[in-house]
Specification:
The chain is α+β, with helices and mostly antiparallel strands. The chain is built from 8 helices and 14 strands. The protein is globular and about 50 Å long.
Length: 278
Amino acid sequence: MVVNGELVDGERVSLSARGEAFAYGFGLFETVKFIDGRPCFFAEHFARMERSAAEAGLTLPFSESEAFQQALSLFEANGVRDGVFKWVAAKPESSGTTDFFVFVRNEGLSLSADPIRLRLSSVVKSSVAFTSRAKTLNYLENWLELNAAQNAGYDECVYCNELGELTECSMSNLFFFKGGALRTPVLECGLLAGTIRAQVIRIAGEMGIRVEEGRYSPEELEDADEAFVTSSGKGIVAVSRFGSDERPRFPDVDSKLIREIKERLRQAERDSLAVFKK
């Protein structure tokens, strides 16, 4: 693990019980895929953390290039080439300082994933809350809802906001096809501006697919032709059904169109590795 720029034994890292990171979850994180010892879409992830940090009143202690070098040193020290790593910016005490942690979350990559089953969460997400729009350390509710969905026989859950509009899943952004258009909830509904979400919107546009960011109800998702979710760790994962039916809800699961978007995303990931040099 890298802590404030220094390689340390991760088993010995601790947080002060009186600090705001431990007491209130005052901090931010990014989850980043890496391939061949290089992080994917690093600039986009760092820019999002900078924006969230500014809004939360945190000052990041390292520049983008310094954080990038810390990631490279982490991969080298751990002897890993592919996987997912995280960095965390947290407020340790009632001061202007910020602790910065970089660590490997898991080694190796799964380039393919089985279609998942979604259920609607009973939790209402605020469309204006900072915790709905940023990746904060206040992630307990997401974790509880994910576990509840899995215990009920699903793989993921999807939230609505106070207006009954779809927002996102517990760990991913949501897309669905209907009427020849690729639809995804607009950011103003209260969701994370996902790095892979932005890439999919760009790729779909380049493919000539009409992309609509809007306000959608669960009923519109139920009536979709096909659906998928996106995240930095898993990329694009098709949805087999939404709701309690045992049969697949969507007639075309992991279609040729979704597979083409997946392939273009994988190429975009590799193209992003060349942005920084060791």
